[in-house]
């Protein structure tokens, strides 16, 4: 149930953030691709850092799920 609520709340953020970026750029046709590519590289870098920094070695039960929810 929590996943459905989270998805309903977070799904519109992509279109809202894209609309905000387009409204603030002077030449959105040329500039948006670079911004989107930089955001994708940043997202992948964050995922790589999260996966390789050994965040999953907790001794407490259910801590992995709680930590992942806090990190998203």
What does this structure look like?
- The chain is mainly alpha-helical and 72 residues long.
- The protein has one domain.
- The protein contains 4 helices and no strands.
- The chain has helices spanning 2-10, 12-24, 28-52, 63-71.
- The protein is flat and about 40 Å long.
- The model has no long low-confidence stretch (mean pLDDT 77).
Short characterization:
The chain is mainly α and 72 residues long. The chain is 78% helix and 0% strand. The protein starts with a helix and ends with a helix.
Output the keywords.
72 residues, mainly alpha, 78% helix, single chain
Which helices and strands appear, and what pairs or packs with what?
Blueprint: H1 2-10, H2 12-24, H3 28-52, H4 63-71
Average residue-wise pLDDT:
77
Uncertain spans: none
- Strand fraction equals under 5%
Number of strands: 0
**Ends: how far apart?**
17 Å
Shape: flat
Q: What proportion of the residues is helical, as a percent range?
A: over 70%
Query: What's the order of the H and E elements?
Result: HHHH
């Amino acid at each position: 149930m929590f996943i459905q609520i989270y998805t309903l709340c977070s799904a519109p953020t992509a279109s809202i953030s894209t609309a905000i970026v387009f409204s603030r750029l002077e030449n959105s046709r040329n500039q948006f691709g670079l911004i989107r590519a930089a955001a994708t590289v940043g997202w992948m870098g964050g995922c790589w850092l999260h996966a390789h920094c050994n965040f999953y070695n907790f001794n407490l039960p259910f801590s992995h799920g709680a930590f992942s929810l806090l990190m998203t």
